[in-house]
Amino acid sequence: EIVGQGEDNRYVRLVVQGELEVLRDGRITYMIEEASFVSESGLHAGIMLPGSVNSCCTVKAKTESRCLTWDRTELLHLLEVDSNVHRSLQNAMSWDIVRKLKTQRLLLSSGRVEDPESWTERRQQQSQHRYTAILKNLLQHNRVLNDGGRENLQNYRIIHHIEDEDHLAALKECGWTPEEFELGRRPGWKPSADSDGEESEAMAAKDEPWTVRWYLRAIYLKLFG
């Protein structure tokens, strides 16, 4: 098992070999193939979430598989210092979203889905869980929220058809009002333990940040040119 439903996950992965199953409540919702990303959590829409994001599903290997794994916060620092890598990665993830939607349609037409109505309901639950997890992380990082975060979240909503009622339900679950969201803060707000200030200081204090970043950049460029 790569990640479990309901687990906090701080990694972004790229499948370099094999095929993965994505399960919601133990039932398959779609497949992830080679050269696809796992747990990108809105990066394709420009949402730069550091730290952990709660997983809306279980992802496990269907065949012998290998993944490249990045710590989400370190990956974001790489993207911040290299706009070319940022742009290339965002484009690759955007195409990957299209491919995942195609695999869902193929899965449905293959006969592997025994109850299409139940499958559709699980997909909707998975989508809402994912959106709420992204929103929760965003609300915990005030700088990200107010530095284009709301606009990028709106892009995500358009791409994934997140309606106003879904957004309001997610805000309510996170304990925020629509007014606080638009304002960008709420009374008594405090950053999470891995939030902007502490996390940035921790990254700055590392002795080898450039080594890590450029190593990741080299891997990415080798894969995507």
Task: Furnish the topology, listing elements before pairings.
Elements lengths: L7 E2 L1 E7 L2 E5 L2 E6 L4 E2 L14 E2 L3 E4 L4 E6 H10 L1 H28 L5 H25 L1 H19 L3 H11 L3 H6 L12 H10 L3 H16 L1
Antiparallel strand pairs: 1-6, 2-5, 2-8, 3-4, 3-7
Helix pairs in contact: 1-2, 1-8, 2-8, 3-4, 3-5
What can you see in these coordinates?
The protein is α+β, with helices and mostly antiparallel strands. 56% of the residues lie in helices and 15% in strands. The chain has 8 helices and 8 strands; from the N terminus they run ββββββββαααααααα. The strands form 3 sheets. A 3-stranded antiparallel beta sheet has the order 5-2-8. It is globular and about 50 Å long.
Entry summary:
With 225 residues, this protein is of the alpha+beta class. The protein is 56% helix and 15% strand.
Main sheet, how many strands, which sense, barrel? 3 strands, antiparallel
- Helix-strand pattern, N to C? EEEEEEEEHHHHHHHH
- Helix amount: 55-70%
Give the helix/strand class: alpha+beta
Per DSSP, the total helix count is: 8
Quick tags:
15% strand, three-stranded antiparallel beta sheet, alpha+beta, 56% helix, 225 residues, 8 strands, globular, 8 helices
